[in-house]
Amino acid sequence: MVLGICVAIHLGIIFYAIRGGLTAGEILGRTQGNWLFAIFYEIFVLACFIHAPIGLANILQEHFPQSKLSIFCAWLLAGLILILGSAAVWGLVVGGPQ
Question: What is the separation of C-alpha 12 from the centre of its chain, rounded to a whole number of angstroms?
């Protein structure tokens, strides 16, 4: 439920940016220092962190029922989503080296 709402809001933001003709610089200017943006997208990252590894583990378990590969890949994906997603949110809100 949370992931679906986040996807819908995210798509709305994309359509707003496209129809408004915003450039990448303008988008970054609006996101830096905006902590509501950070909170929303961190919730989005956490929802993906929970959802995607469960689905991947189920798919791999169906294809490789005797293997521990599904658990390892699910944890790997979860870690990557959490680390890379949070880093992306941090980079957009706080900014990086200029």
Answer: 16
